[in-house]
Amino acid sequence: MQNKNWKAWLYLLPAIAFLGVFMVYPLVDVFVYSFEEGYNSTSQTFWGTGLYNYSYVLHDPYFLQAVKNTFILVIITVPVSTGLALLISVGLNSIKPLRELYQTVFFLPYVTNTLAVGLVFMILFKKTAYSDGLINLLIHFFGGQSIDFIDGPYWAKMLVMCIYTVWVVMPFKILILTSALASVRQDYYNAAKIDGTSKWRTFTRITLPMISPMIFYLIITGFIGAFKAYSDEVAIFGTDLNAAGMNTIVGYVYDMLYGDSGGYPSFASAAALILFAIVLTITVINLMISKKNVQY
Amino acid sequence: MKVVLQHLTKRFPSRSKKGEEVTAVSDFTFEIPDGKLIGLLGPSGCGKSTTLNLICGLETPTSGHIFFGEDDVTRLPPENRGVGLVFQNYALYPHLTVRQNILFPLQNLKGSEKLSKQVMLEKAEEAARLVQIEKLMDRKPSQLSGGQQQRVAIARALVKMPRVLLLDEPLSNLDARLRLQTREEIRRIQRETGITTIFVTHDQEEAMSISDLIVVMKDGIVNQIGKPQNVYDEPCNLFVAKFLGTPPINVFSGEVRGGVLYIGEDGVLSVKGVSDRKVFVGVRPEGFLLEAAGPLSCQLQAVEVMGRDRSVVSTHPAAQSETIRSIIPSEVQIDQSRDFVRFALKPAKVHLFDAESEERIPFTV
């Protein structure tokens, strides 16, 4: 028995070593940093321990702006993208001709580089010396005033950001939902048909419950993904997100470490742990709701 | 409600462009009397499930008509036909309780047919009582055994009191013991409700044991319709004779010469009224009599004890199958020291079929 245990640990050693060095140690370190006040990374010194870092971060207007941006992004894009993906998947599932073509088209954003997609959005929305962007041309065509979506009012920038995020996360959701829909057995639909079930009732009482585990999976991963948003913002608004007023929590963490105002690992750690607490809370709530609603 | 099928034909387009159409059901004409239990029987791919789908409306026929009573339902969608269908795998909604499953068809009713909650619950209870699952109403399908799920499926199909009840391979997902019990249950429920019931099966024993009438199909064509005993006693052709009965009928190639049936060189039976020709001879396992001076001599292979009877396995050069299986009551002594047995044949258990057309040839002893 002893011998066997020894062998088991030997087999586990590579994984444990890597996880320990590259995950557990940094995680602990982040936790420690967040309580070390006035930590200087060059001299490796600090002058006290306490909650000052958290207090600083929570009073930093840039951080509060980032939290606000992140929450708006999450609250808008998760339901919208999941709902739209469901709509499109149901549509895809009920048409026969050209289904594969549509599937390919909807899946394209998933395999496209984030920055390339960002460029496309620039062409659509950005004002340059030569053009106002495609969307502004359309607005003009319908007799509206042109809007600067990239450097203009907050709501315009947020709109672009939301459209962009929804567009980027949708392919994966469509992929998951179309396969979930396809895996609902035809027998259930036949049984419903013979019983004279209306189309809407078939959808709400049979299709939705059947694919509900997948929908909840998408909502949970969607929340987590949206809370971690950062690279998409950079793709559209450039690296100085604070100046654009479009920073996110992850963006704030990055700026604290490496940005112009960088060199503050303690503040970054505190912000990262606050984000962790938020994501954990939301995920636990999500799981509790899904346990109640997904029941077979 | 009587069900009338008139020249019912269903052809499916081929998958590839050049391939030929597949005829699943061909020119099926039959009047199912009111309140009877009908077994549609045949090997897999014979079109029996397609026939069921045509009757319930999940498929529309290429040509022909279906009447429920006097109503032509050929072009009606399934929900307007008033049928109940029990699926092979039951198709119970896994996220709903037994009660919700049974209520589901009732909740679909609209307009003047709409029922109050109280009436719906009463009807569901009634259907549950009929199939004896009233104690399981709050369980989920996953918490039920196969037999219980089957009952729930039947209750769901019956709750709207359909004009016709259809069952697709109702017993195929159950183990042997449960199968026996459930088939009697189906018979009882059918008798109690008096609903015309059609069920599909590939198991001839199942069909024979509970049906009022059986329909034997092969390759989309109805071969024979009749009471189970009649079809068994007078199969119209070699296929039907082979398909019905366990153990299956033993087939020999033989010849009729001068009113005597020869198997190999043994003249085994006098058959009057049959002109000289080559024939297939079908002998039911219970049609063999062990006699010391019997005309048919076979190589003895083994004797299997089955309790009430014994099964004698032997071989004969003229037999179509490798072994001949005959059933002998256990009181009869079998001399197993010799390597051959001699049989006499019971004329009623012997069927002659034309060697070319495989149609049955009647004869008198």
Task: Count all strands of chain B and give the number.
Answer: 21
Give the termini distance of chain B in whole angstroms: 43 Å
What's the number of helices of chain A?
Answer: 13
CATH class of chain A: Mainly Alpha
CATH architecture descriptor text of chain A: Orthogonal Bundle
Helix/strand-derived category of chain A reads: mainly alpha
Spans of at least 5 consecutive residues with low confidence of chain B: none
Across the major sheet of chain A, the strand order is: 1-2
Distinct helical segment count of chain B: 8
Strand order of the largest sheet of chain B: 6-7-8-3-9-10
Structural class call of chain B reads alpha+beta
What Rg of chain A is obtained from the alpha carbons, in whole angstroms? 24 Å
For this structure, the CATH topology of chain A is MetI-like fold
- Oligomeric state of this protein: heterodimer
CATH class type of the largest domain in chain B: Alpha Beta
By CATH, the superfamily of chain A comes out as: MetI-like
**What is the ordering of alpha helices and beta strands of chain A?**
HEEHHHHHHHHHHHH
Can you describe what's shown?
The complex is a heterodimer of chains A (296) and B (365). By secondary structure, chain A is an all-alpha fold. Chain A is built from 13 helices and 2 strands; from the N terminus they run H-E-E-H-H-H-H-H-H-H-H-H-H-H-H. Chain A has a two-stranded antiparallel ribbon with strand order 1-2. In chain A, helix 2 crosses helix 13 (265-293), helix 3 packs across helix 12 (249-258) and helix 12 runs antiparallel to helix 13 (265-293). The longest helix of chain A is centred in the N-terminal third of the chain and has 34 residues, at 61-94. Chain A is globular, with a radius of gyration of 24 Å. Chain B folds into 2 domains: 3-242, Rossmann fold, CATH 3.40.50.300; 248-361, no CATH class. Chain B contains 8 helices and 21 strands. The radius of gyration of chain B is 25 Å and the shape is elongated. The mean pLDDT of chain B is 89. Classes of the chains: A mainly alpha (296), B alpha+beta (365). At the A-B interface, helix 8 and helix 9 of A face strand 6 of B.
